[in-house]
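Protein 1 of 2
SEQ + STRUCT:
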Amino acid sequence: MAENVKRDKNFFALSLKGIGRLQNQDARLVIQSEMYDVFAVFDGVGSAKNAKKATQMAAMFIRKYHERFLHERIRLSAMIAECNDYIVASNLIEPFSTVCIVVILKHSEDVFYISVGDSRIYLVTNQYIEQISKDDKVSDSNVLNKCLGMAELGHGDFEQKRFRLERGFLALCTDGFYSLMEKNKLLFFNVLNKKRPSTIRENLRKMIKGNNLDDATLLVIK
């Protein structure tokens, strides 16, 4: 019988303020526990009055309450739905944020995820980059039809999905990052598949800095 080996995930992050932005409204979250790891990125909706506050509140809620939803079984949908309720209950004006979040079990290749808004989860292998998540946008526009902080969203609007990570690694990112990557996918693919995390991060920083109109955040999980 194969030994049940605990797999600890390595990760690194990069986040750059967008050109002309007064502050970086993105946020990221990493939680590593005995049973699972949680990775998330948040992107404050640019025109919303309390976008930065929304990203901070979402990250804080998940950090504080994750065990309630993930300890005995993975209830990611319920966690994000209650996170949304928490933000809405703040009564802030326009507390809007995207989120993409993955939960990786320590003794398994199973990955659970939810994406709300237009931040993305990619699978990166030595052969391709594939978008795993689906954007919540009105067709052929940049208008979001779903994000955290929307009072009209109910618990049924947050769907937990699952897949097995049998090869490659995951990259979570906001639109300020992938809008550049999608324009030159081969170049980004080659950089992301370099061996040393420090080399990847520095190369990506040089490629993004001064070119990202929006805040650009990347969280790579290997």
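Protein 2 of 2
SEQ + STRUCT:
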Amino acid sequence: MHELQKQFASEEGEAAWNAVMHEHFHTGSLDEAQAYLVSQLEALGTELATRCLIDDPDRVNIAGWDELYEAIELHEGDPITGVTLAIANEADRAFEKGQVHHPYMMLGLYSDDHYTFSGKSGHDLLAEASSEEGPAWAGYDEDIEVFLECEGLDAINTALVHHKERHFFRDDMPEQAPARYVEYVLACWWRALLFHRAVEKIISQKPLPHHVPVLAGMVDMKPDVMAVHGEVEGARPALRAEEDEGPQMAEMLPAAMITRREVEEVKEPPSGTDLRRRVSESSEVEEPPRKSLMARIFGR
């Protein structure tokens, strides 16, 4: 029996485990997260676990970064000071069998008009992103068309879209979780790791102008984990003109920040208590659909 089968037997156990994993991503401790996930996948030893380990971070890349760099550098309006980036699946293709599911990417570019990205820390960005009303920048992206692709996630993403045990119901208080459910959870975290490491890698190879930070997340994909990449302390000067020049008329962009797709909730590092409460509430009451956090970040 895999050790996580015992821990995932209860909602509290799985929530506490997820809280630790979220913390690793939010603090940028991806080396530690990767080493741990490798050990857990190796111990599991299933076909999907092996598939995950074959798809290591070196095989996943972000295409179109040069175009993004150029768009930010040559932008004629207010300087771009913040970027949001996410991967998502085509919702209407979830039940297509025998098809490869390639995740698409969503991108938002922002100036300091509605939120002063300049000088903000990664912690500040994560805190603002988790605001109950939605972040101040939601819906105010700059009208710049750049298209990015995440290459190398097709195999694991397709396997997860069609996985047979994506849910685990604990009505009978089981002593252990099914091994295939543990497999699904670990593989979801591995997909998240591959994406975030790809963003981390491309930023280290070519930082964006003025070290613009990238708030990266996932859409309609577990584990809904968000992280800030490219943050360099002291490297982002205040790019806005002096604030005492008087009020400026901000152009109201369309409510939809971009013309891509909808996005899903990704939160700042939660405590084990917070996660246990949310997991418990979601299992007891089926609430009406609500705009997710990532949907509000992308202004949808």
